[in-house]
Sequence to fold (498 residues):
Amino acid sequence: MYRPADHSQIAKSGQVAVCPALYAPVFPVNSRTNESRTPRGHRADSRQSIYDCKQQRRICAPRFKRDAALFAKENALLAPLHAFIVRIMKFRTGFVLVFITFITAVNGRAADTSSLEGKVVCGYQGWFRAEGDGSGLGWVHFGAGKRLAPGSCTFDLWPDTSGFDDSERFPTPFVFEDGSTAELFSSIHPKTVHRHFQWMREYGIDGAFVQRFGTVIASQRERPSADQVLSHCIEAAMAEDRTLTVMYDLTNFPASEFSTIARDWRQILANGWGQNRCSQKYAGRLLVAVYGLGFAKQPAAIEPWRTLIAELRASGSSIMLGIPTYWREAKGDALSDNAFHELLREADILSPWTVGRMARITDVDRIAANVWKKDLEWCNNEGKGYIPVIFPGFSWHNLSKNRGEDAKLDAIPRQGGRFLWKQALEAKRAGAKTLYVAMFDEIDEATAVMKCSHRRPVGESPFVDLSDAPSDHYLWLCGQAGRMIRREIAESDVLPLR
Fold:
């Protein structure tokens, strides 16, 4: 079973491998062999790094040597060239940069970090932990604490781990109909994170907004694994030429501790985030996002919000705010306070959260006309960017049951992708130039667009049936939405055919 590097031992080693732009150590390096201790199946030779961190006096952990068999499957014509380059890269790191640039041009659209226009991006929770993954946290976001069993879980989609390596799969008490053990993944496994970003590249998703939760980064117990996730996301985003944005989530985070977030961002910047070629920018400045301001069910914190925005702005960053759907009208899910409305003028980009605000295809027309279109008019007049949020469907039956509440399974059906496509289409027609898909990996509320399994465990806990489409269908559909936003394909009320 995979065991991540023990950070307590890293401090005792003379040389430390640190991912660029993140201050959390990744793998301890053996100064004699110049190799780092990595999970089973990974070889980390510092000569193979494609990112030169010498200016920061750090050694970069990411290794971007792609498995030759996988590459041959993706593109048989280039497989011999790949094998040749793999040999060369052991001696000349510079060749890797040329190779990856060439491969990106052939196998995927390279992501431009200077702008968000024409992009489809996904939120990336990265919050899943598994028993035996080395975090010591148990089944986080799979079950309640360390308990995971049929009848006691907190997610409604079963992820597809069929192509994962043995080290990436963690056995559970669940079984499939044939009696075989159902397995889950962990977000702290570097190969799994890389796999996710590889999917983004393969299907045309331009980048990710990796979530950093205030409640987590303020916790000494939970923060180390969250730092690992961000580190792996940086490695994977650079390897797969995807953009990356840090997004802080204020959910259930007390306003008295907002300084923790500003301090975290300053530390990330101080450790080279701006030098990463994957770091998303907006209006010529590094972009940082904050979600959770102005929701009616959260305590109002106008002055703490203002101070946080000012501190982030003082770092020279552009700021995106994740806000309620009805922020402009100050109704429904939004705080009714003129001061909050004025506060929003201090942001560069606004992105209203619409998950759950639409349940049927006909609801999309209402949101497009009354929310997105009018929001865009306001933002254009104020010189603000605007990114609508779209989602494939919704279900939180098992999560609600764990809280002692009742919720219908598959509450907002995906309809084979028609629900997601309708949102992308109407957002485009309303004038949107960027789409934020919620979410890449959130199986808790069944909004994940990553590959999810047609096979569902049997027993007391039910899971949403997605067998009406291939497991990669929603990844592919996100890529098609990006093509439509960029006008590479025509707008169509009909779901695209593969």
